[in-house]
């Protein structure tokens, strides 16, 4: 039986990734003391690995594919194939930011003010390249964690990942500049990508994961509409979502069904009801493949 070795990110992305795989149709079970999860697909051999390490192991061919952040691909300058962008994070469906932050009362206002200063970060290479780009010389040290608490007693600034900025604000830190925006990526080893079977399997996984992400942010709406009101109903529905219209046993009525963004439905349903739609049903979608 042929298999692909797939890196699943351990840590902050772990829970969201396993939930995404579940929506995509893959059930992953993780033992607290094991780095070898089980999955109900015998063609996949998953390994639970820190997202920071997945680009390196994928580049080396120890993994055929893996899920990691664009930030870690850039940090390691990893030679990997970026198969798909998967926009999700620990707390939602949005990118994260890598930012330069200082104490709230720090005199530092821009990267230029870091000349000769000390910076702590997990993103040593990204930070050094950013400083070099701006012609700034500073001491960049690797941080093993709890980076926010090091300012201002141990370092002058940090470069850190943030999703909402809540943790930075809680530590009385202020964002000075944004270094990059990062999203989750499905990546592949270049040699594995050349293998026809592995490439097809990785592409299938990418399609199902992207479909699951689409489904998580979309809903279906269906309703019964009298033909006299059909034109009015269609004018209310989003212009880019062509509805499906089906005949009912009563020749004067049709069923209308449409897929749309979940946050649109709360304002549309009252409008549709006032325009004559009846039996309106909103339902969740598991996967939507465009």
Q: Please report the distance between the alpha carbons of the first and last residues.
A: 31 Å
Within the CATH hierarchy, at the fold level, what is the topology of the largest domain?
A: D-Maltodextrin-Binding Protein, domain 2
Instruction: State the fourth-level CATH superfamily of the largest domain.
Output: Periplasmic binding protein-like II
Order of helices and strands: EHEEEHEHEEEHEEHEEHHEHEEHE
State the major sheet: 5 strands, mixed
| Average pLDDT rating | 93
CATH architecture of the largest domain: 3-Layer(aba) Sandwich
Molecular structure report:
- The chain folds into 3 domains: 4-93 and 184-215, D-Maltodextrin-Binding Protein, domain 2 (3-Layer(aba) Sandwich); 96-181, D-Maltodextrin-Binding Protein, domain 2; 218-284, Alpha-Beta Plaits.
- It is 30% helix and 33% strand.
- The protein is built from 9 helices and 16 strands.
- The protein has a 5-stranded mixed beta sheet with strand order 4-1-5-12-6, with helices on both faces. It has a 5-stranded mixed beta sheet with strand order 9-8-10-7-11.
- It starts with a strand and ends in a 6-residue tail after the last strand.
- The relative contact order is 0.15.
- The model has no long low-confidence stretch (mean pLDDT 93).
């Amino acid at each position: 039986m042929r298999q692909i070795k797939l890196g699943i990110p351990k840590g902050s992305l772990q829970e969201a990734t396993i939930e995404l795989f579940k929506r995509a149709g893959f059930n992953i079970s993780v033992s607290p003391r094991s780095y070898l999860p089980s999955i109900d697909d015998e063609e996949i051999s998953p390994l639970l690995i820190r997202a920071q390490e997945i680009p390196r192991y994928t580049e080396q061919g120890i993994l055929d594919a893996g899920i990691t952040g664009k930030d870690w691909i850039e940090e390691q300058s990893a030679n990997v194939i970026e198969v798909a962008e998967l926009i999700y994070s620990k707390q939602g469906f949005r990118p994260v930011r890598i930012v330069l932050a200082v104490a709230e009362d720090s005199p530092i206002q821009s990267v230029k003010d870091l000349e000769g200063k000390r910076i702590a970060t997990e993103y040593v290479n990204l930070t050094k390249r950013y400083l070099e780009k701006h012609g700034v010389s500073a001491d960049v040290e690797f941080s093993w964690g709890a980076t926010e608490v090091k300012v201002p007693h141990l370092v002058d600034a940090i470069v850190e990942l943030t999703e909402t900025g809540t943790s930075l604000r809680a530590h009385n830190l202020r964002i000075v500049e944004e270094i990059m925006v990062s999203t989750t990526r499905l990546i592949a080893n270049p040699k594995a990508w050349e293998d026809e079977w592995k490439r097809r399997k990785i592409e299938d996984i990418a399609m199902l994961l992207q479909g699951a992400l689409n489904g998580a942010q979309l809903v279906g709406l269906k309703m019964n509409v009298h033909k006299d009101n059909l034109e009015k109903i269609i004018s209310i529905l989003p212009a880019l979502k062509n509805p499906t219209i089906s005949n009912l046993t009563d020749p004067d009525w049709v069923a209308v069904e449409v897929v749309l963004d979940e946050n649109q439905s709360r304002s549309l349903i009252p409008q549709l009801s006032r325009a004559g739609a009846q039996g309106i049903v909103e339902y969740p979608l598991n996967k939507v493949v465009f």
